[in-house]
Design goal:
heterotrimer; A alpha/beta; B alpha/beta; C mainly alpha; A: alpha/beta; D-Maltodextrin-Binding Protein, domain 2; 2 domains; 11 helices; 12 strands; disordered N terminus; B: alpha/beta; Rossmann fold; four-stranded antiparallel β-sheet; 10 strands
């Protein structure tokens, strides 16, 4: 048992040591910012459960793990991964980018694709309604009709805004905020009843951030024509795109992505589906 | 006595500016205060009008001590008019509005009710066509006459004049002094702080010479101007009169 | 002989020539700078992408109507905030001028109030009051971000406006107040009819600048929810991955603030001329 393990790990180490030069030469060679290195950007700060403890270099959290998996698939050793921080605005501004790709739950949309390139999706998220127990006790129901009458909020910088208009079309204009923290503050202050987030974020906020927080229900990804799909953001016309897409295709096919999801994202089947 | 000043004393910080000032002013009398700048003439007037609090002493107006520290100054000031060297007209109001403000607010009279009385005052002092002018549209002499009218509109029992011709061009001094002569003829009780020695000599009933906060010498103008007994009075008069 | 042809003096002749010359120099240098910008900037290698990101005609057409509509919210917030600020600012300024010892707490309050609200960033006040007070458990609609956000703006701006009013009050010479008192007016009447009208007139230009600043800071209310023009621009930026909506929003703002700024400058210049 122990022998087999050590042989296996030896093989793994040998593979890791040998493959970069070969694999990187395959596709990504000469296409990254710095030869032999893969520069990956994420948000500042990066949020749970996507990156644990705001420390992507540890490889913990869904996106951190996906980043290392993609890097390995492309032939980069863990040591060759360089992390930088870059927000959405920095990522869409014209001019050279500071990263090879950026992942922080960027939703793929046709409008955004005119300005930047996205990889194939690495995650397709359901949308979920974060609220408080008080609102549920007040009679809020997980039906479309019931949701329309709630006072809604959302993070202004996300695709949750059009999703909200598309899926719920609330009766009164939603209030919009700078970030998750402000949305939860507004829920806490009773200024909004509910807010729309991607499901993993919603689960985290309801469980940890919002006092007496609760999830009213979820809209499964297949509910809309444009489900919320997260892609790696790259410079428009990035040469590395084909390599990244190959890696994601391979990881999806091998079940590796599903495995990472099972490790880092909560079970979502328990969340009631909004009819 | 209409007005009696009794042992007035006042200092600004360590400087004694009024030192044991006593003076009687009879009804209808014109008293002139003369003396160098800083001798305390203006301070006396400002104390009588209660714009400056006294340290000690009493001011009797018709037998009432108006310098009593706890007294409400407002009704007293309504009985005593004062005109300043620098006019102090309200620049955002016309001449007529300047004059009507206090009667309107204090006596609660309307503009319409005041108009005949106020126009008569303006006419009397040769300002009939200046009622709707703003202060900066008037000459210095006209402004000072409006200031006098403004004080008179409250029907004061006593008028105080604080060097009211000092800021005027020489050719405008006459028209303002003429107003004072008129008021005296009508029996107004007046106290003037002034540098107009000719005027004081010819019109005043009583003259006080002040030096460093004290009344050094007082009496009939002929006595003060023609036969001063105190060396400081002689010295002061010889200096100011030589200049004429 | 040569000097006075046609009623024009030598001096006038000379000044006319001088004026013509400086006008010509100013015009040609302005033209040169404009030409340099128009010709050179588009030649920069990244110009096309900058243009795509910041001056995108397609995005302008798509976002302008909604942005203009959102701007109405800015105008509305401004319209109901400005009078409240003026009233509160004046009240605070008067409170700081109170001489009656019984009312000393009022005066102390005025001092503490202006110190605090001038020292704290507006954004923080907006957050603190906009989220904090409703968080105490007020029921709807009394926890509305419009109410508390407006209060935050009013409290902050009233502190500045009060200081300006106070400087105006102090600039009116004591002799004016004394003249009013000597006529038998009460202290309150002296303030109301003599000192304040002059003080307010003197500080109008300075207060105009506050109005312009307020017009911009109204956008801070978006931090606590209201979707005004900059928030709407932010949503568009996020959806279209393009900064053009911000440029459009700024242009809409400028249409209002530039004339207001010019007016304020004009009033200040007029006042300076009147003083000299």
């Amino acid at each position: 048992m122990s022998l087999r393990l050590s042989v296996a790990s030896l093989g793994l180490i040998a593979g890791l040591a040998a493959s970069p030069a070969i694999a990187a030469g395959d596709c990504a060679a000469g296409k990254t910012l710095e030869d032999g290195k893969l520069t990956i950007a994420t948000g500042n700060p990066a949020y749970f459960p996507w990156v644990i403890d705001d420390a992507p270099e540890k490889g913990e959290g869904y996106e951190a793990a996906v980043a290392y998996a993609i890097a390995a698939e492309m032939g980069f050793a863990a040591d060759d991964v360089v992390w930088v921080r870059a927000g959405f605005d920095e990522s869409i501004q014209p001019g050279a980018k500071s990263f090879d790709f950026n992942l922080q739950q960027f939703s793929i949309t046709p409008d955004r694709e005119k300005v930047v390139d996205f990889s194939l999706p690495y995650y397709t998220s359901a949308m979920a309604v974060v609220t408080t127990q008080a609102v549920i006790d007040g009679g809020a129901a997980a039906t479309l009709e019931g949701l329309k009458t709630l006072k809604w909020g959302a993070d202004a910088n996300t695709t949750a805004v059009p999703m909200l208009m598309d899926l719920v079309a609330p009766d009164s204009d939603p209030l919009l905020y700078n970030d998750n923290t402000d949305v939860t503050a507004a829920i806490q202050a009773g200024q909004i009843d509910a807010a729309l987030f991607d499901l993993p974020t919603a689960l985290y906020l309801a469980a940890v951030v919002v006092e007496n927080g609760a999830i009213l229900g979820q809209f499964p990804a297949d509910r809309t024509d444009n489900p919320d799909q997260f892609g790696l953001l790259m410079e428009d016309g990035a040469a590395i795109k084909t390599c990244v897409d190959e890696a994601i295709t391979a990881l999806t096919a091998s079940g590796k992505l599903a495995e990472i999801e099972a490790t880092w994202l909560s079970e979502t089947t328990g969340v009631p589906v909004i009819e | 006595m209409k007005l009696r000043l009794e042992n007035l004393r006042k200092s600004f910080g360590d400087t004694l500016v009024l030192d044991d000032i006593s003076l009687d002013v009879a009804e209808g009398q014109m008293v002139c205060l003369i003396g160098a700048s800083g001798s305390g003439k203006s301070t006396i007037l400002r104390c009588i009008n209660l714009l400056e609090p006294l340290d000690d002493g009493a001011i009797w107006l018709d037998g009432q001590d108006i310098a009593a520290p706890a007294l409400d100054p407002q009704p007293i000031r309504q009985r005593i008019g004062i005109v300043f060297q620098s006019f102090n007209l309200f620049p955002h109001m016309t001449a007529a509005e300047n004059v009507m403000l206090a009667p309107r607010r204090v006596h609660g009279k309307s503009r319409d009710a005041l108009l005949p009385e106020v126009s008569a005052l303006f006419e009397r002092f040769g300002l009939g066509d200046r009622m709707d002018h703003y202060p900066d549209q008037l000459s210095g002499g006209q402004q000072q006459r409006v200031a006098i009218v403004r004080a008179l509109a409250m029907n004061p029992e006593i008028m105080l004049f604080d060097e009211i011709t000092s800021a005027l061009d020489p050719e405008l001094v006459g028209e303002v002094l003429e107003v004072l002569t008129t008021l005296k003829r009508e029996g107004m009780t007046m106290i003037l702080a002034t540098h107009e020695m000719d005027f004081a000599q010819s019109v005043a009933d009583h003259v006080c010479f002040l030096d460093r906060g004290r009344i050094i010498e007082q009496g009939h103008p002929d006595k003060i101007f023609d036969a001063p007994t105190q060396p400081r009075t002689q010295d002061f008069l010889s200096r100011v009169l030589r200049r004429r | 002989m040569a000097g006075n042809q046609g009623g024009v003096t030598r001096r006038q002749e000379y000044e006319k020539r001088l004026r013509r010359r400086s006008l010509f120099v100013a015009a040609s240098s302005t033209l040169a700078v404009l030409l340099a910008i128009v010709v050179l900037v588009p030649r920069a290698p990244g110009w096309e992408r900058v243009q795509q990101s910041f001056f995108n005609a397609e995005v302008i057409a798509k976002t302008f109507p909604k942005l203009l509509n959102a701007f109405l919210l800015d105008v509305a917030i401004f319209a109901w905030s400005a009078p409240l600020i003026a009233v509160l600012g004046l009240a605070i300024a008067l409170a700081r001028d109170v001489r009656n010892p019984v009312l000393y707490p009022l005066r102390l309050f005025g001092i503490v109030y202006t110190d605090i609200f001038r020292g704290v960033p507006v954004v923080l006040v907006v957050y603190l009051i906009g989220f904090g007070i409703p968080g105490l458990g007020l029921p709807r609609p009394w926890n509305s971000p419009y109410i508390w956000g407006t209060l935050a703006l009013v409290l902050t701006y009233a502190a500045y406006v009060a200081e300006i009013f106070r400087s105006g009050i102090e600039s009116v010479h004591a002799s004016q107040r004394n003249a009013a008192l000597s006529l038998g007016l009460s202290g309150a009447d002296a303030m109301r009819f003599v000192v304040l009208p002059q003080a307010i007139r003197r500080v109008i230009p300075a207060q105009m600048n506050m109005l312009i600043a307020l017009q911009k800071d109204v956008a801070l209310l978006s931090f606590i929810g209201p979707v005004e023009i900059f928030r709407q621009a932010g949503v568009f930026k996020s959806l279209l991955a393009n900064f053009t909506p911000y440029v459009v929003a700024a242009a809409i703002f400028l249409v209002v603030t530039v004339p207001a700024t010019r007016l304020a400058d004009h009033l200040i210049a007029k006042q300076n001329r009147a003083r000299t």
